[in-house]
Amino acid sequence: MRGRRAGPLGGRRSPPAGRGGLLLALALLALTGCQPYVRVSTPTREAYQPLEGFAVRMNFMPRKPNADEGKKIYDARCAVCHGPDGRGDGSMAEQLTAPEKNPYTDFLSLFRIHPKSEPLPSRPARFNNLDQMRLNAPFALFETIARGRPHTAMPGFQHPAYGAVDGGEPRLSDQQIWDVLFWEWSRTTSRERLAQGRRIYNQMCASCHGVQGDGNGPEAARIREQVWTWARGVGPGIFTDRDWMAYRKPTELYQKIAEGVQRRGVELMPAYASRLSPDQIWTVVEYLWTFVYTPPQDLR
User: Fold this and answer.
1) Domains of the chain by residue range
2) Quick one: which of 230, 54, 212, 242 has its CA closest to 137?
3) pTM for this structure?
């Protein structure tokens, strides 16, 4: 039997690189051909039919919040800081401080320098501050009331977060927090603005969204063909869906009204920026929240 020829260093000569690469490629091709064939397809369904498991109600607000009920709690627990009308001018407002939150002393403490200084002031929120309130969703306020704001004077009235002041007893229930925050929410509007928003809504929006905001307007069938949630009375554009509205910022609702809504090339809602002034759009946005909560007596 003849032996293999030795290489330059006395070892056996290895197969040419090209032959090894060809053998590897053939092996991979053979393995690929042996793989089972899988057909990937999606069953056809109507546009309004949801995927299985995606139609779950969150049920954050089982009862419609009542701002007048919230005001009773607000007067007892919140007005001392935020003021009787939510303007941040309560009797304790000027004395509030932010414990353990001073960037200057915190920085020096890294070098083991501990100067004595006064704690920084902690100003209570003003609920008539439109810039602040329009950039917040109701659920963000719920979290703030329940958990507090760490390293500020804002306490948590349900389950204080780490670093937050304890609001004390009695703890507020979920429904009490919703009632309180929507009384605070009502400070962003007035009776006159809600009346104007109602007029515009009934004239330009109710035909689809319904007079009650429940998506049962005379022209709503067209939208139900495109948006499956409308057939179930939940989701975008159903203003009585309190769970959906809890996560909406007023700026988001404003944008939808101003720019309109399109889906798959179909116009679901026209843009109103050319037909309504910015302030008129804001009155509509303010009115939409009355489908979520019962406004206080001074706004009815």
Assistant:
1) 67-187, 190-299
2) 242
3) 0.75
Q: How far apart are CA 89 and CA 84, in angstroms?
A: 8
Reported confidence tier of residue 45, pLDDT bands at 50, 70, 90 = very low
Pairing of strands 120-121, 97-98: antiparallel
- Identify the architecture of domain 190-299 in CATH: Orthogonal Bundle (1.10)
17's enclosing H/E stretch is helix 17-33
The amino acid present at 33, given as its one-letter code, is: G
Q: Is residue 268 helix, strand or coil?
A: strand
pLDDT at 233 over 60: yes
Euclidean distance between CA atoms 233 and 158, whole angstroms: 31
3-31 residue pLDDT tens:
444 444 444 555 555 566 666 666 655 55
Q: Say if 67-187 and 190-299 have the same CATH topology.
A: yes
Average pLDDT over residues 160-176: 93
Amino acid at 236: P
Average pLDDT value for the chain:
84
For tokens 């009115």, name the residue. 287
- 67-187 has which fold? Cytochrome Bc1 Complex; Chain D, domain 2 (1.10.760)
